[in-house]
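Help needed: design a sequence for this.
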């Protein structure tokens, strides 16, 4: 029976790998060793410690003669700067580097919030500074309150632009934001039960919600600062707000929200509306299903719905929509570690295909890829490495426009039945995924231009630092596989990978001699060629695509 009871045993390596991959973007042998032997409750708790970002703000090294630098702190209008697409990519670079420097749930959860309150950074969010503020808002509430975020997001300048609510007026209503707010961001549709009528809301509710949201406007100069977060926000134009009473359908018990005529009163309307949405049990269940799909598995049966989703929703409601009690309960549970039943067909460890973001981050962290330090090599990090290679080449080739999904529904991997995370794989995305490790090892963009990426993955140094028995090819491969893969590999797989170290017909001690020769004369030419081929094969193997 699926159970949220905490895992009784201490984490072994297999379970530590499972937790670290699912809960962070930073996967390393050092952190795994720290987790092994800890209880699941303590290990998860260690990931919830609040830590400051390594980088306070993004930087733009261009124009070369007079860089815009830390433009997000400028008093100039955000849209007055040139190179907005470039700057939005730099904001992504800032966020990613911070995720790589911290072993915490924060960034995994802030990306989860992106999948729940989706904007497209290059398709309507406005200037790069507004996108920066949007990511800061998600980061602020990543380990905080979902209901509070659902109120704050309505005044987020980027969201106001993205879903056109800044154009929503009492005399010219725009229902775009109201529709997505109900359909995608909070309660979701439920089953359709009639024309313009779903289980959880009706078309009338969208119309009334649009009236609640009317008059909420983007503040171009970012001069309105939210007192709770310190982040710029929009404002209320009282004259453009629909001050009539808003009457909702029977889905919400026919609730009436009294229209107000002052800014403070209109805020009260917003809060009453959000409280009404979050008072519906289906809202809590919608978030818990999303969390389950994000952290555990894309599909589940009725027993999981009854014994996992519903109790998690109860926890969410009991904690007034604080997200951490739900996530820590789930990630500490016997169910998460697949020890609550003996059914071999419902494996949860190794059941999710890695997103291009997870794949890239994991390779960089586990192999200690030495990318340019943004604190000392600003142009190389922001422009040469992240913008020109990671953002413009790798992510599109791998099928993921980072922070810019095709639609407000988000990335198909998180919502589109029946394939879900299998959507990451297609004939169009394989080359990007498989050429990534090749590019990192060579230090060049092998997907297109062959330009330098100003970083290099040193396979020899990795083996020297982290592999205990590098002289024995069988032990070497087994150690690497144990680190990289969710599950142990067979002897046949070891032998297959060994062919990259030892030519067919040669004995195992051929590799032993090659390694010892390198240690004697420091000439790494041969061992590097062999290890590069081995690591490329092991990273591109099916086992590494799963987590």
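Sure. Designed sequence:
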């Amino acid at each position: 029976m699926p159970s949220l009871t905490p895992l009784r045993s201490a984490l072994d390596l297999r379970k530590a790998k499972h937790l670290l991959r699912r809960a962070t973007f930073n996967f390393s042998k050092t952190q795994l060793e720290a987790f092994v032997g800890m209880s699941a409750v303590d290990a998860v708790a260690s990931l919830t410690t609040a830590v400051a970002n390594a980088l306070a703000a993004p930087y733009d090294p261009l124009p070369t003669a007079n860089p815009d630098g830390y433009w997000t702190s400028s008093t100039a209008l955000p849209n007055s700067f040139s190179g907005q697409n470039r700057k939005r990519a730099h904001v992504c670079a800032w966020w990613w580097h911070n995720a790589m420097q911290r072993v915490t749930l924060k960034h995994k959860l802030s990306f989860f919030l992106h999948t729940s309150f989706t904007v497209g950074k290059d398709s309507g969010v406005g200037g790069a500074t507004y996108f920066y503020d949007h990511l800061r808002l998600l980061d602020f509430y990543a380990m905080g309150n979902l209901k509070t975020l659902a109120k704050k997001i309505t005044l987020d300048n980027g969201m106001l632009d993205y879903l056109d609510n800044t154009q929503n007026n009492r005399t010219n209503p725009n229902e775009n934001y109201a529709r997505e707010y109900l359909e995608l961001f909070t309660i979701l549709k439920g089953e359709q039960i009639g024309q313009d009528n779903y289980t959880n809301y009706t078309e009338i509710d969208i119309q009334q919600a649009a009236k609640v949201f009317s008059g909420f406007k983007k503040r171009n100069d970012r001069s309105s600062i939210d007192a709770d977060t310190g982040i710029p926000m929009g404002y209320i134009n009282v004259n453009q707000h629909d001050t009539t009473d808003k009457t909702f359908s029977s889905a919400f018990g026919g609730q009436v929200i009294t229209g107000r005529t002052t800014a403070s009163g209109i805020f009260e309307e917003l809060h009453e509306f959000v409280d009404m949405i979050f008072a519906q049990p289906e809202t809590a269940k919608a978030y818990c299903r999303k969390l389950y799909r994000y952290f555990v598995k894309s599909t589940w049966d009725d027993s999981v719905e009854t014994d996992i989703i519903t109790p998690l929703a109860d926890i969410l409601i009991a904690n007034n929509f604080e997200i951490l009690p739900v996530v820590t309960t789930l990630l500490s549970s016997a169910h998460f570690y697949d020890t609550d039943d003996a059914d071999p067909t419902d494996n949860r460890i190794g059941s999710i295909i890695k997103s291009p973001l997870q794949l890239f981050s994991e390779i960089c962290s586990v192999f200690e890829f030495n990318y340019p330090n943004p604190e000392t090599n600003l142009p190389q990090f922001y422009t040469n490495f992240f913008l020109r290679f990671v953002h413009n080449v790798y992510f599109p080739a791998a099928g993921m426009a980072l922070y810019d999904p095709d639609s407000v529904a988000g990335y198909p991997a998180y919502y589109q039945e029946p394939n879900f995370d299998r959507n990451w794989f297609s004939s169009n995305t394989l080359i990007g995924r498989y050429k990534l490790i090749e590019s990192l090892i060579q230090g060049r963009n092998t997907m297109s231009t062959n330009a330098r990426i100003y970083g290099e993955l040193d396979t020899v140094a990795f083996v020297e630092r982290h592999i205990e028995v590098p002289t024995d090819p069988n032990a070497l491969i087994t150690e690497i596989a144990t680190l990289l893969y969710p599950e142990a590999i067979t002897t046949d797989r070891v032998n297959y990978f060994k062919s990259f170290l030892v030519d067919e017909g040669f004995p195992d001690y051929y590799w032993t001699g090659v390694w010892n020769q390198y240690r004697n004369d420091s000439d790494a030419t041969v061992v590097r060629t062999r290890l590069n081929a081995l690591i490329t094969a092991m990273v591109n193997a099916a086992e590494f695509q799963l987590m």
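The mean pLDDT is 96.
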